[in-house]
Amino acid sequence: MKPIVLTALAASLALTACARADDVDNESNATSEAKEAALEAQTEDFVINAEDFGREQLGGKIEGPAGPEVEASLLMADGTSIGDIRSYVACPENISVCDPAKLPADTIYTYVHVVTPGVDEPNDDAIGTPKAIKPVAKSVTFRTDMPAGGFVGHAGYSLEQARAALGPQGTFTVSCNEGKLVWEVASGEFWGTGEPVTFFWKSRKPPQGPAKAYGFDADGFTANGTGPFPAPQADGDATGCT
Length: 242
Known about the structure:
This protein is an alpha+beta fold. It is built from 2 helices and 14 strands, in the order αβββββββββαβββββ. The chain has helices spanning 2-41, 159-166; strands at residues 46-48, 50-52, 58-61, 70-75, 80-92, 109-117, 132-133, 139-144, 151-157, 171-177, 180-187, 197-203, 207-218, 221-230.
């Protein structure tokens, strides 16, 4: 009878081994499915809690090739401007000299953009002058046209300026769309010519330099503008506001 016992034992061990292999395969499949779900979720839109720029306490500004601020136009494809964008990047309030090369890797930088529809102040020499300037009746969105690299979850706008432009009930929504940040008029009156609104977002990445990385939609037209922007993410890293 011993051979029979050994045979039964061997069969039992074989079944146990198969069950363990199945468990490993199931765990592996579950892990793969979880990773795929996470990647799919990165492309979904989600709303970001908008913060008031009026409460920000900022330190020194980064000095770029054109100085501490980038002055540019919001240009349509034909070279006509439908707005002005003035941008800068600031360090936390306890840092008066904002030099990323001398700061810790975990420093948080605040990207600030003052957008004024329908007017255009003089630009930096390297950016040039628009062909013409078009007045604006109804502005809709301001956005990043590239994934917001290093985004740390904080973004917003000047509530005071939004109310001045849109009326006492005026608000913007802030959302993430495929890694890009979007500020959109949510309530109030029309945001038009000569009404500046300041937008901001925070990143753990300093700017690489000015880039044509910002978009603006108004009166059915789309325009793009230049401002400071982080370097692209390395391959394999999470990108933008995901």
